[in-house]
Structure formats: structure tokens, C-alpha cells
């Protein structure tokens, strides 16, 4: 459960080769961070994995099976967006329950799953509130809750904290890391923030103009950056 393999994946928009060709292994349970400057193709790569964009060529294996042409809902992955995309008229409980309702899960089971997600995310006391009655961090947790209840093979995060203020961002970083430790589910996390990448990742993928510059643990990249781009980006003195 939860491995994602990219084989010579490319993406072209019109004339622009945004992703020339990427090979990448994401192992089950890993916390993988895509990092790189704005416009380098992080979101595009994540959207290709999610199935929100079609690859121009190449293959995406999910749990060892070809998922290249599967619709997003069939991939068993959950995308958490930076804009919270909550339903403003629904309570937190209903927002979290929404994907399960859509899947026609029996109400008793829905209640159980929502209660469990709320417990993990410290939202138990907020279940009857509307999104506007929540802080930014709480709203982000609701968005994550909505992903958790589906028990995805992997979570895909696209800069989930970029709308939050600095202090809250540090908090949420820790919360997401703790969540990963609890759930042990694969997480693929996009950020342009080196500190976020260094503190959260098992494995960092440094992207530059749609190419992978280096893949490694935070320590490997820090100690042994393979080129100046990585060194500059990670901020080591080499
Ligand atoms: P990042 O998330 O790293 O900031 P993106 O993946 O959003 O980068 O974008 C990478 C490049 O692809 C940018 O040059 C962007 O303008 C281009 N791009 C992204 N989506 C589209 C699209 N739907 N059509 C045309 N160009 C796009
Ligand atoms: Mg982006």
C-alpha cells in the first residue's frame, strides 16, 4: 500500500516542456517533499500523480499497478489543497463526512470514522462549527480530516501551509509530521520552503525547471549536495 513510481514521466503544455522526463520511486510510508523555486513544476508533478493532469508520456505505478490512465478518484490518493476548499454552509462534521456520504457509507460507520479523524486532528470540540468559525490552522485540519476518512494509500499536499502565518505554520508542520508518524501513510508534500523540506522529509526531491537535481535525505543533501543549485537551495556552504 502506498508506493508510487514514476517512469519517464513528461508533461508538455503547448510548446512548453514543463516536465521533460522524470523517474522517481516513492516508497510505502515515506514522507517525500518536492522542493524547488516557483514555477519549477512541483504542482504539475503532484497533479500528474493525482491524475488531475494527464501525462504527455511515461507511466505512473501506484502500489505496483499501472495507474497512468486512472481517473483521480480511482487512484486511492487524497489531495489536500492550500486553499481549504471547505463547504462554508456545512459543519465541520459534515465537511469531513462528505466524501463518505458520496460513497454511500452507512451513517454509523461514517460517524465512527469522523470521530476518529477528529480525535487524531484535535477537532472533536469543533465538529458542530462552520468553517468561518475556525482559525486558519483548524480549517486546514478539517481539509486533512476530509482526506483521512477515505484512508488513502497516500496523501498529496500542495503547499498546504502557505496561507498561514509564520507561527501557525511551524505548528502545523509539527502536526503534519506527527500525523505521518501516527498513520504511517505515504505523504508527498510540495513546498518552496527549504526549512519545511529539511524538517519534515524522509526524502527530498529537489526540482529545477522540471528536472530532478537530486534526491536524498535532508542530511545527505546538506552534507553532500551534488551541484551548486542544490547547495544554494538547501543553504549549505559548499
Ligand atoms: P510550481 O508549482 O513549482 O510553482 P507549476 O507546476 O505550477 O510550478 O508550473 C510549472 C510551469 O508550468 C510554469 O511555467 C507554469 O506556468 C506552467 N504551467 C502550469 N500549469 C499550466 C497549464 N495548465 N498550462 C500552461 N502552462 C502551465
Ligand atoms: Mg505550485
Automatic annotation (TrEMBL):
It is found in: Cell inner membrane. Its EC number is 3.6.3.-. It comes from the Bacteria. One of its GO terms (molecular function) is ATP hydrolysis activity. The keyword Nucleotide-binding applies. Residues 4-234 form the ABC transporter domain. Its main location: membrane. Belongs to the ABC transporter superfamily. This is Multiple sugar transport system ATP-binding protein. It comes from Rhizobium leucaenae. The lineage of its organism: Bacteria, Pseudomonadati, Pseudomonadota, Alphaproteobacteria, Hyphomicrobiales.
Amino acid at each position: 500500500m502506498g508506493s508510487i513510481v514514476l517512469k519517464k514521466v513528461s508533461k508538455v503544455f503547448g510548446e512548453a516542456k514543463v516536465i521533460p522526463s522524470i523517474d522517481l520511486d516513492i516508497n510505502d510510508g515515506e514522507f517525500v517533499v518536492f522542493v524547488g523555486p516557483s514555477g519549477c513544476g512541483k504542482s504539475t508533478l503532484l497533479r500528474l500523480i493525482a491524475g488531475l493532469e494527464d501525462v504527455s508520456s511515461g507511466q505512473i505505478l501506484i502500489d505496483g499497478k499501472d495507474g497512468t490512465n486512472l481517473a483521480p478518484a480511482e487512484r486511492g490518493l487524497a489531495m489536500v489543497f492550500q486553499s481549504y476548499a471547505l463547504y462554508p454552509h456545512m459543519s465541520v462534521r459534515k465537511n469531513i463526512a462528505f466524501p463518505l456520504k458520496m460513497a454511500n457509507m452507512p451513517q454509523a460507520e461514517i460517524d465512527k470514522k469522523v470521530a476518529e479523524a477528529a480525535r487524531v486532528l484535535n477537532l472533536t470540540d469543533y465538529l458542530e462549527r462552520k468553517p468561518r468559525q475556525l482559525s486558519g490552522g483548524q480549517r486546514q485540519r478539517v481539509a486533512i480530516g476530509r482526506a483521512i476518512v477515505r484512508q488513502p494509500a497516500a496523501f498529496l499536499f500542495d503547499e498546504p501551509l502557505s496561507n498561514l502565518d509564520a507561527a501557525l505554520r511551524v505548528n502545523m508542520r509539527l502536526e503534519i509530521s506527527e500525523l505521518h508518524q501516527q498513520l504511517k501513510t505515504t505523504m508527498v508534500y510540495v513546498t518552496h520552503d527549504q526549512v519545511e523540506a529539511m524538517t519534515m522529509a524522509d526524502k527530498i526531491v529537489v526540482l529545477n525547471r522540471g528536472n530532478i537535481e537530486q534526491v536524498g535525505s535532508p542530511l545527505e543533501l546538506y552534507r553532500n549536495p551534488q551541484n551548486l543549485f542544490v547547495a544554494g537551495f538547501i543553504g549549505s556552504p559548499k
